[in-house]
Description:
single chain, 139 residues, mainly beta, Lipocalin
Amino acid sequence: MTNHSGPIPPGIWRLNIERSKLLSPKAMTLWIVENYEDRLCWVAVETTPECSAHIVSWQGQYGGPPAECVGAGISARLTSSFDEGIRTEGEFPGIGSFVECCTLEPDGKRMICRGEVKTPAGMQTYIEDFDWLGASPHR
């Protein structure tokens, strides 16, 4: 997967369930807290169809070592540069290795994350399609 969309701005993003193709059903609000040339930090609140909420967070360096995704039990690393969008590689425990590329649409109001997971049953793909809600509240 290649990605040349440019940096994704910090702020609040909401998963558009209708436009997404998920591996498992969920709603999600993503807060990209920081996205600087050297590092990325985000927090997500995921909600299951049964209305059970789960908080996941991650912070790491572009081109840096793997870092733990707190709340998800995975380790992931950024394999893109800041200017290319967000490309992440890692392993979903019990499922398989994954690569995900998030790109910003030209209007700056939509971010699309496309992922591939190598499972024992074969390659699975997913799309998380986000709408921009607004700037980070702590800025």
